[in-house]
Amino acid sequence: QLDLAEIGGGSVQAGGSLKLSCVASTYTGGYCMGWFRQAPGKQREAIAAIYGISPNTYYADSVKGRFTISQDIANSTLYLQINNLKPEETAVYYCAAARIFCSSGGFSRHPTIWGQGTQVTVSS
Questions:
Q1: CA atoms of 43 and 48, how far apart (whole Å)
Q2: What are the backbone angles phi and psi of residue 65, rounded to the nearest 5°?
Q3: Which of 35, 47, 58, 111 is deepest in the core (most CB within 10 A)?
């Protein structure tokens, strides 16, 4: 069974950076891995996904050029480098997985495996 655990949330000022990690309990080869976020009062949204290594990546338009998803498959760790954070990006960030292929279109179906989430707070 694949379990996920996020590390690395915190509080930053607008324009700051964070790097989130998601440690998986087993090998994630063959899984689409991704990051979602849910702001207060809003629906959870997909922001990035990856299958294997780049260039099989997806980014939401709102984060392109500022967020970078990557993974170290050998160590079962998924990363999200977040730069130039905005206050409206304050949210709980979740990593997620599904045993499907994905590329530039992201998840083709809703992920079935989720981490517990990590809070990112951006102050102005």
A1: 16
A2: 90, -15
A3: 35
Could you tell me the maximum CA-CA distance found in the chain, to the nearest angstrom?
A: 40
Six token digits for residue 101: 């292929």
55 prior amide bond cis, ω within 30: yes
Two tokens at 54?
């780049």
The position carrying tokens 């206050």 is 87
Q: How far apart are the C-alpha atoms of 113 and 96, rounded to whole Å? A: 5
Enter the tokens of residue 92.
């709980």
- The amino acid sitting at 120 is V
DSSP 117: -
* 57 neighbors 50 (Cβ within 8 angstroms): yes
User: Tens place of pLDDT for every residue, the chain, 124 residues?
Assistant: 899 999 999 999 999 999 999 999 999 989 999 999 999 999 999 999 999 877 789 999 999 999 999 999 999 999 999 999 999 999 999 999 999 999 888 999 999 999 999 999 999 9
